[in-house]
Each structure stands twice: as structure tokens, then as C-alpha cells.
Amino acid sequence: MRSSLWRHRDFLLLWGGGSASDLGSAVSTLLIPLLAVRELGVSTFQAALLVLAQRLPGVVFSLPAGVVVDRLCKRRLMIWCELLSLLAITSVPVAAAVGRVHLWQLYLVAAVVGSLRIFFGVADQSYLPAVLAREQLVDGNAKLNATETAADAAGPALGAALASAFTVSRALAFDAFTYAVSAVTLLLMRTPDPRPDPARAAGPSVGFRAAMTEGLRYVWRDPVLRAISCCTATANLGIFAVVSLEVVYLVRGLHTPSPEVGLVLGVGVLGGFVGSLAARPLAVRVGNARVMWLSLVVCTPFALLMPLSTSGVGLVYYSLGWAIFNGGGAVYQTAQIAYRQSSVPRELLGRVNAGIRWVVWGTMPLGALLGGSLGTWLGLRGALWVATGVLACTGLWLLASPLRGWREIPEPQPA
């Protein structure tokens, strides 16, 4: 019987540093578009391009990141990603202090940090199986996802409070500080992270470019991983269409003050925290395979409440629909990551994670463009109806896969 994760030193360090970094990133998720909307007066489409700038690197760098992660020390790579992200975010409050923040700088910072998060995220998911045993992965992922969603819930409210106490640009210094905290906790970890042998990681006579596609080929041959990729890609398309619209919709469409914007978004994301806490007991009761599709089929249609929101008390519809959708999504996310970590051969895990990330992150910039374009053509509420309609259909991919007949995740197969 393994000891509790509450007494696992390295997991606690990884969890604590990651939680700090997640909170800072959630604060910036509100502050950067708020800075663009309130202080730079950008249009709806320009605000959507900020989301695009952050997510487009996922299309460009995900596949190379998988090969890099499988060939380098994962923890060292994560530390460098955090330090470089710190420098990029710090440039905004520095520019505000010495002159003026320009829109091009926000685009550049969003793109740089988004690129670094690709490498960090692939390394993080591939490093966790070295820290925890297979039977601890669901519990570990549930805890990591719980604090990530709690950060997403608290981040907008905290960001609004920091923006009120200081200025929006100065409040971004908080995100820079959290990257420093994450780097320090990673430095303090003791779990061995030996540098893999490139020949063993990529296979004999396999070059870098060929190795980039190995993860994609593995995912395509596995019907469950293929369904998970399509499901998550569809969800991200709708989510980022919503994210590209929500600040403009709440501020300009419903005339919501900044503190209330943070509260509405924070309460909406809080459902993800509840879902993360419920993921492990639900997986035990329902089955860690069955819970993946069941959580989405039950929860995603509630996203259709969001376009019904109005100013004042009617904002409850936005928060409630977002909360229930995020709750189901958190259960699904915890279970599907544990499936990948426990079922994929260790020597291919970085490339498989990167291949899935290339597919599912590739729809994020498309979602941002979709939201901005539909917001211009159909109006903010009409665009929100289209985006939430996409979200309501995401679970159908899993119902058409072998997952529908499984209760538990099967034992891993050899590479």
C-alpha cells in the first residue's frame, strides 16, 4: 500500500509550485485582455487575436516539444520554461513604468509565454509518472487538476482586485512572481530525471522530423486515444471561442463592472474545482474509464445557459452554465490524462502527449478566430450561442469509441 500523497515530498513540491504558477497564469488571463480593452481600447477582433497569439504556438511547437521532452531532462527543461516566462511577463509592468504598453508587446508576450507553456506542459505530464506509481496517477492528477481549476476560479477575482489596488499592468508582476516560486520548487525536488538516450527514445535510425510524427501515429492507431483527441479538440474549439468573447461580452455587452467580471468568471470556473475533487471518488464508484464519457454527456449541455445571461441577477446563468460545464470537464480531464500516463509506453509518452496536444491545442487559435469573427458578424450573444452549441456536443466522440463498453482502464501494452 503506497503512502498518502500528502506525505510525498516531491509530489508536494511539484504540486505547490505548479499551483502558484497556475494562479499567476489565471490572473494574467483576465489582466492581459482587460489591459487591452480598458487601457488600449482594442476592438472585439483585436481582443480575440490576443487569445490567438497565446494559443497559435501550440500548432507550431507541440510536435517538436514531444521529441525534445523525450530526449532531455524534463525537470531541467521545466525550470528554464518558468524562468523565461518570468522575464516575458515582467516586461509589461516594466514598459508601463518607463513609458507605455503597446498592443504589439501584448501580442509578443502572449506568444512567448504560450510557446514556453507548450514545452512545460508536455514535460510536466511526462515527468509525473516518474514521480508517482501507476496506482497513484488518478489521485495525483485529480489533486493537480483541482488546484489548477481552483486557480482558474480565484484568478479572475484576484486579478480584478489587484487591478483595482494598483494598475492592470503593475498587477501582472504577480504572475512573474509565481513563475519564480515554481522554478524554486522544481529545483528542490529529488526525483531522478536522467537524460534519456536519444537512440532509445526515438528508436534506431529515426531522425528528429520522423520522431515528431511517432506520437501522432500511435494516437491514430489507438481508437480510445483518437476519440479523446477529437473530443478534447472539439471542446477547445468551443471553449476558446467563448474565452475570446467573454470579457468583451460582459464589459461591453452587459455593462458589467470589472470586479463583477472577475467574480462571474471565477464562480463559473469554480465548478472545475468541484469536479476535480469529485474525480477520484467518481472514478472508484463508476469506473475510471466509464467516468470519462459519462461526465461529459451529463454536464456539457448546461453550457447553453450562458447565452441566456443578462446584466444584474441574470449573470447567474453565465456562471452556472460555465460551472457545470467545467465540473464535467475536470472529471473527464483527470481520467483521460491518467489513461494516457498509465497506458502509453514510457519511452513514447512525451511524443504521444505532444501529438495529442498538437491536435487539441490546434483548435484553440481556430476557436479564438471563430469567436472574434462570429462576434463581429452575428453580435456577441449570437456568437456565444454558436460557441456553447459546440461545447454541448463534445461527449458524442467518446460515445462512439470503445470507452462506452469499458468500466476500468486496461493494463498498458508494450510499445
UniProtKB/TrEMBL annotation:
Instruction: Report the superkingdom from the record.
Output: Bacteria
Tell me which PROSITE patterns the record gives.
MFS
GO CC, sorted alphabetically, is:
plasma membrane
Query: Which stretches are transmembrane?
Result: 12-35, 47-70, 77-98, 104-123, 224-249, 261-279, 291-309, 315-335, 356-377, 383-400
Location in the cell: Cell membrane
Recite the UniProt keywords alphabetically. Cell membrane, Membrane, Transmembrane, Transmembrane helix
Q: Molecular function (GO) terms listed?
A: transmembrane transporter activity
Main localisation: membrane
Q: How does it sit in the membrane?
A: Multi-pass membrane protein
InterPro entries tied to this protein: MFS (IPR011701), MFS_dom (IPR020846), MFS_trans_sf (IPR036259)
List, for all copies, the residue spans of the domain called Major facilitator superfamily (MFS) profile: 224-415
Q: What is this protein called?
A: Predicted arabinose efflux permease, MFS family
Native organism is: Streptacidiphilus jiangxiensis
Question: Top-down, what is the taxonomic lineage of the species of origin?
Answer: Bacteria, Bacillati, Actinomycetota, Actinomycetes, Kitasatosporales
